[in-house]
Amino acid sequence: MQKFIAEESFWSLFPGASIGIVVARNMKKTEDVPEEDINAIAQILNDANSAADQHLTSNTISQNEVVAVWRAAYQKFKTKKGARCSIENLLKRVLKGNPVGHITPSVDIYNAISLKYALPVGGEDIDAFVGDVRLGLTDGGLAFRPLGEDEDDPTLPGEICYHDDEGAICRCLNWRDGVRTALSDDSQNAFLVIECVDENRVDDLRAAVDEFAQLMERYLGATIEAKEIITRENPEMVIVA
Questions:
Q1: CA 172 to CA 237: how far, in whole Å?
Q2: What is the average pLDDT across 47-57?
Q3: Which of 15, 40, 53, 203 lies deepest, with the highest CB count within 10 Å?
Q4: For residues 161 and 185, what is the distance between their CA atoms, to the nearest angstrom?
């Protein structure tokens, strides 16, 4: 059995947080997604870029509430210099008139959900996990190679990250994915995450999780094996039985 566990060290900093998890299995590989569905996903992403405007009430990115709440969250633990929440990076592109473009069908879907709901969204390849996946403060030194980099960049003491028995999976909550567990064109089994640290937006989180699962099922043929909202009262779930 393989689990996802949000540890007490995470809840001690974010007692009112909620983490939405979707376990999607048997996704189509990128090469197997029909052209009409790739086009449909691209349109969903385009629509989400437009919808993101509703979350941007200020031309100063940090003054938008959906970003400010994450700026405050990132002050509570050790981060790499310049580390920012993933949704801030996406919304900054929209604000600058540089909409988020196509990458792969699976990544396009989670970017669309992230933009539409202004919540951080990520995905990892379940088959690359070693042991349980945990979210919490680390002592530092966990092995990690960032996507797009040629050198390792281990975690810092007091940093919050997702990690397994092999090392870090995603650093500084949702800031940076690693090469080892990143979704690829050939990934078939995905661990999908949506994070919310604003207690007033739990309904948005639930809607995002539901739509995320529906899109993965509809366009990538995924079987949704599990769908869960992780809270302090419900801090773990089974990923692989």
A1: 22
A2: 95
A3: 40
A4: 24
